[in-house]
Recover the amino acids of this structure.
């Protein structure tokens, strides 16, 4: 396969295999699979997407390789990432990781924060991520150093969003809640309000303050909510009830939601039907949930710890998969590659039809932002940003798919070549 010239804008891509979820109704099939597509670019935007026609010599030919729109990383922690070498928790589980992390904060100088966060952004960009949302810990009402230092981390081609992640207890004081929301609102675009909501700090009054302060400052929310397996975790049930009685102008993402898997089926159905009706997005984080839930030294975990993704899909809840922590006290591994997250979910959640249906879980920016006015990714007029997977096939993807070409705004920006011997064998 000849590669596009990184120095020259591309006219487009011929013969690329796009996933079924992305294609318009009526797209032709061959042997049950969508036929490949020709994508024409114009000034870094998509001009057209049409079924493949041979002999379009002005387009770069992908020879049927799988292709996706730019990938989405909806849930990272760039302030904590790459601290594992100096910060290892003494025992397993979420609360021990939180304690260890607090001890690492003494090292969080401006240089330390910027260097680690920039590394995470660079890895994500090389993997094909075009939109990354990071949570940043707040410890009181004053924006932390990381909030400011990470504001202008610039990685070309990647839109960065910041979520102020404060413990729910801070919102118990109505004035403190308002000060945090105001500081976030005055931090510019791509900033959201967040909170850590867990049965260990449950406080419905603080929840009300959190919701009202977000509304007052017209902020969207991304909540760490019910990251536990307690059948009496309150967060999502409370939120569903609140949203049936109050209007909320922004968009809401709920990250984790593990406890949905511990309560009754009826309770889960009730919560999911409200989330679907209110267009609340659920973000599952399979890697850290598998690592941190039901974690006891010397004992094999019995539960998977992951939210009810299939039931949420059936209910029509917008869904995404995120990496969560990467190489810190919460998770020693991680790569900022959404394909690794999807691979983990494939096994943990027993996903099928992974390329044609479930790849949407790592590409759906509209599910993250709540802005679905632009239609599906790669619609005409949207950014010509794609990831191509040479040598992969729709049955085994996302495994064996480390090789890829990343195209931002119609130009090749990153390439990772594949094992030529294996490609010859195939
Ligand atoms: Zn998180």
């Amino acid at each position: 396969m000849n590669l596009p010239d990184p120095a020259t804008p591309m006219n487009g891509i011929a013969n690329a295999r796009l996933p079924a979820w992305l294609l318009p109704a009526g797209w032709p099939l061959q042997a049950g699979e969508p036929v490949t597509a020709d994508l024409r670019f114009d000034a870094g935007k998509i001009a057209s997407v049409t079924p493949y026609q041979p002999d379009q010599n002005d387009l770069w030919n992908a020879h049927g390789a799988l292709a996706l729109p730019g990938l989405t990383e909806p849930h990272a922690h760039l302030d904590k990432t790459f601290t594992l070498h100096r910060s290892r928790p003494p025992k397993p589980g979420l609360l021990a990781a939180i304690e260890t992390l607090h001890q690492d904060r003494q090292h969080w100088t401006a240089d330390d924060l910027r260097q680690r966060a920039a590394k995470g952004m660079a890895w994500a960009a090389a993997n094909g991520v075009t939109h990354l949302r990071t949570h940043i810990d707040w410890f009181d009402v004053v924006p932390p150093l990381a909030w400011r230092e990470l504001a202008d981390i610039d990685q070309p081609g990647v839109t960065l969003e910041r979520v102020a992640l404060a413990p729910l207890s801070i919102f118990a004081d109505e004035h403190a809640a308002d000060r945090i929301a105001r500081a976030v609102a005055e931090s510019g675009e791509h900033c959201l309000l967040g909170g850590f909501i867990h049965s260990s700090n449950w406080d419905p009054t603080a929840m009300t303050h959190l919701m009202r302060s977000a509304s007052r400052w017209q902020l969207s929310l991304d909540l760490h909510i019910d990251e536990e397996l307690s059948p009496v975790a309150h967060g999502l049930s409370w939120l569903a009830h609140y949203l049936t009685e109050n209007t909320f102008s922004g968009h809401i993402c709920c990250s984790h939601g593990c406890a949905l898997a511990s309560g009754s089926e009826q309770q889960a159905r009730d919560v999911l039907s409200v989330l679907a009706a209110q267009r609340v997005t659920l973000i599952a984080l399979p890697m850290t949930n598998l690592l941190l839930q039901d974690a006891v030294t010397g004992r094999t975990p019995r539960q998977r710890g992951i939210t009810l993704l299939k039931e949420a899909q059936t209910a029509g809840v917008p869904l995404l998969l995120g990496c969560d922590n990467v190489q810190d006290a919460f998770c020693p591994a991680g790569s900022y590659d959404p394909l690794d997250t999807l691979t983990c979910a494939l096994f943990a959640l027993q996903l099928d039809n992974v390329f044609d249906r479930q790849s949407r879980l790592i590409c759906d920016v509209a599910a993250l932002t709540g802005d679905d006015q632009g239609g599906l990714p790669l619609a005409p007029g949207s950014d010509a940003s794609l990831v191509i997977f040479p040598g992969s096939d729709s049955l085994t993807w996302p495994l064996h798919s480390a090789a890829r070409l990343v195209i931002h705004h119609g130009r090749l920006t990153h390439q990772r070549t594949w094992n030529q011997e294996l490609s010859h064998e195939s």
Notes: The first strand starts at residue 12 and ends at 16. The CA atoms of residues 91 and 297 lie 7 Å apart.
